[in-house]
Amino acid sequence: MTLTLADVTLTYPDGDDRLTALDRVSLEVPAGTLTAVVGPSGSGKSSLLAVAATLVTPDSGRVVVDGADTGSLDRAEKAALRRERIGIVFQQPNLLPSLTAIEQLQVMTHLSGKAPRGARGRALELLDAVGLADRAGRRPHQLSGGQRQRINIARALMNDPAVLLVDEPTSALDHERGAAVLDLLITLTRERSTATVMVTHDRAHLHRTDHTVTMDDGRLTVPERV
Ligand code: ADP
Ligand code: MG
C-alpha cells in the first residue's frame, strides 16, 4: 500500500466554531492504481488531497505515504517527502510563462537539489510519455490548454513520485481532451506504479478508474462501482 489515510479528521476555524472538512476519512490506494474522488463542491475533496500531500496536518488520524507515517515527521522531513515521493497536479497548470516545456520539468530537478545530470533525458522521456516530445521547445502560450495540463502532469512525475495527487485535471478541458488526460493518468499510474488519487467533477469516464469514492460533507462514502 503506498498511500493510506486512516480515520483522518480535519477542521478549519469557522467564526467561533469549527468547520469539519474531513470527518474520519479512511482510504487505501495501492501502488499502480487510480482512485477517483467525486462529490459536490465544498464536500472536502481538495482538503483530502491537501492532507494526503502533507500540506495540511489533520486534527487526528494517520497519513502514511510510501511507508512513512507522516505524523512523526517534522516540517523539513515533510517537505523532503513531498519533493521526493509525492507528485501534485493542481487544477490550474501554473507553468512559468518564460520557460519552455522541457525547462518546466528540469526546474523540478533543480528545486529538489539533485544533480542536473540526467534531468534533460528524463524530462524528454516524460514529455514523450505525455505525447509532447515534439513540443519540448514551446513556451506555455504556444501550447493548448490540454497540452499545458499534460506538461503539468509530466512535471509532477519528474522526481518519480510514489504518490500522485491530481485535483480536477479535466475541469478546464472539453470532454474529448478531458478523456485523453484521464487515459494518460491511468496509463502513467500503471507504468510508473504510482498510487494515484484524482479529484474530478467529470463522471463520464469513471468506469475506467480502479476505484471511485464519493465525498459528501466531509465523509467518504462506500466505494461505488460505476
Ligand atoms: P471541495 O474541493 O470538495 O470543493 P474543499 O476541500 O475545498 O472542498 O472544502 C471543504 C470545506 O472546507 C468547505 O466548506 C470549504 O469552504 C472549507 N475550507 C476549505 N479550505 C479552507 C480553509 N483554508 N480555511 C477554512 N475553510 C476552508
Ligand atoms: Mg476542490
Entry keywords:
4-stranded antiparallel sheet; alpha/beta; globular; 31% helix; 226 residues; binds adenosine-5'-diphosphate; binds magnesium ion; 6-stranded mixed sheet; Rossmann fold
Low-confidence stretches: none
- Classified by CATH, the class of the domain at 3-94 and 161-220 is Alpha Beta
Helix content: 25-40%
Mind describing the biggest β-sheet? 6 strands, mixed
- Bound ligands, named by name, code or SMILES: adenosine-5'-diphosphate, magnesium ion
Characterise this structure:
This protein has 226 residues and is of the alpha/beta class. The chain has a domain at 3-94 and 161-220: Rossmann fold (3-Layer(aba) Sandwich). Helix content is 31%, strand content 29%. It contains six helices and ten strands, in the order E-E-E-H-E-E-H-E-H-H-H-E-H-E-E-E. It has helices at residues 45-52, 75-85, 101-111, 119-129, 145-156, 175-192, and strands at residues 3-14, 17-29, 33-38, 60-65, 68-69, 86-89, 163-167, 195-199, 211-216, 219-224. The radius of gyration is 17 Å and the shape is globular. The model has no long low-confidence stretch (mean pLDDT 91). It binds adenosine-5'-diphosphate (ADP) and magnesium ion. Residues 45-46 line the site of magnesium ion. Residues 12, 19, 21, 39, 41-47, 215 line the site of adenosine-5'-diphosphate (ADP).
